[in-house]
């Protein structure tokens, strides 16, 4: 049996011992069925969030595409929904249920903690002691409650958080163009490595510290030789601080609202959050596979419920 998480940018598969992660942008002609064909003949527990990709006219269309693609490759598959049940039809509750699978899995292990999952694109803030009240929540509900913060380790644009930045002693407006992304900021600050930079670069250029510094300089419509490395690092640092403070703001609100005791973190950027908060990092926990937590989670939940 395997656990599958079909995201908007990445396909993650847990086979009980290890994780495979494939870049699979759902807004393009995603080869989802083709990537899953090697698992044909297995049983699969599946969650998704890729239905929101703008390659689909509506979320229902995205749900059906993902459902049909997975079923074509792995007929013996069931899909977990935000109602806490597994389904064999493309029902609406399948939309963005991956975070809820993580909550279902971890609530019995860290029952009173707040989970922060810092992924490539988004940050999930999940009070594990409030599982029943989380049932049925859509992404819209979570945005309204501060449980979904649309900023991530790799794919967030720099101007998504910065309107101005102090560069070389001057308060400077930023361009809203897609010149640079969060992966550039975290790379030059040493928060991730070049190997961690798994998303396409905004300019199609190489993944390197120098290339990221150049991309960051474009945020203020300059080249690196105009503002220098120090100026580009000021942009990266300003983005990092804004991102961490934004996540902290909504984590603090969730803790106050739910009386959660302590924070645990997961996701590809878990170490960044744990360094900032000084909390438990599931990324260093043996066999937790934090960078693909929903795939691991839906696998474990399916085993617990005995659906296969």
UniProtKB/TrEMBL annotation:
One of its GO terms (molecular function) is hydrolase activity. This is H4MPT-linked C1 transfer pathway protein. It comes from the Archaea. InterPro entries: Hydantoinase_A, MfnF. It holds the Pfam family Hydantoinase_A. Signal peptide: none annotated. Residues 45-267 form the Hydantoinase A/oxoprolinase domain. It comes from Methanomicrobium antiquum.
